[in-house]
Amino acid sequence: MNAPFAPDARAADTVTRVDLHNAEEVRRIAAFVEEQRGSPFHLPSWLNAVERGTGQQACGLLAERAGRITGWLPLTILRSPLFGRALISSGFAVDGGILAIDPGSEAALAHAVGELAERLCCEEVELRGGTVPSGWDAVTGKHSGFVCDLAEDDEAQLLAIPRKQRAEVRKSLQGELHVTVGSDEPDRAAHYACYAASVHNLGTPVFPRRLFDAVLDGFGESADILTVWDGDAPLASVLTLYHQGIAYPFWGGGVWRARATRANERMYYALMCHARGEKACTRFDFGRSKTGSGPWNYKKNWGFAPEPITYARWSAPGAAPRDVDPTSEAYSRKIDLWKKLPLPVANAIGPVIARGLA
């Protein structure tokens, strides 16, 4: 670890920047995340996968008191010629704010990350979840999260879906579609084809495939890909993380035919059953969506209640807030142009842009 940061006068913790290539430190931090019921995005394995997959540097701040870990802040150092410099907790994720055993450790980490941002000439720090530190801006209501308990068996899971959406799921079960689950090369290729087509249709650049490969490799049995096929053609596919009894479908999408064939309905119902039956999960985290958007309404149709998400933001003096939201008005014309690009062209240049969209 590096030299300690200057302590906050209010805290008794020592905060240091961690070398995430140190196996012993990684083990200690992972154990702390488990103890504190953190998300998979708090784990060093997530940060290191992001670094391998995008080139954006992984790091983190560790608070200790008398040799005991009292707090952890996972970070991705984002450097982008298009979107500036920032510290994100946690990069390319929807969660990952400060994990701490008490307010003193939270304050120490918040103080240290501001100091680190200034050292690295970062314009902004974004904490995705956890407590909003004193003096920071709270960004709330822009996105909602959707989490629900899984039912006790497949039939109960089907009956838990509201009537109108349940009818769509039943129709998807009557067709010729079939489902596979795995993480081998055919699974990965099918997933990337579906995901790339999906985000292109939305007008946003696709992430590098090596990011998905790095996450699958880093999480091992705690991650897989579920794909819905029509014969030999993949229609919809989702990469899911499994952590502490919760399924996190994270990167999912489908080709144009997915809607007409109800492949997405088949996919998410099959995933709920797989998560409970094969992965022993009891809860399903449908992820975040922009409030009022199409995906937001889609998740509500499945019976999930939206819960507003609050993020915390620190900005360097005089720095304007970064705008990396692809749905913002500033990007509307660019999105329309991106949709018109041939898919092979978008897939070639998209990852270069997307690696800055942490």
Automatic annotation (TrEMBL):
* SUPFAM superfamilies membership: Acyl-CoA N-acyltransferases (Nat) (SSF55729)
Q: Which Gene3D superfamilies would you find in this protein's record?
A: 3.40.630.30
InterPro entries, sorted? Acyl_CoA_acyltransferase (IPR016181), BioF2-like_GNAT_dom (IPR038740), PEP-CTERM_FemAB-rel (IPR017469)
Please report the stretch or stretches of sequence annotated as the BioF2-like acetyltransferase domain: 166-300
Q: What is this protein called?
A: FemAB family PEP-CTERM system-associated protein
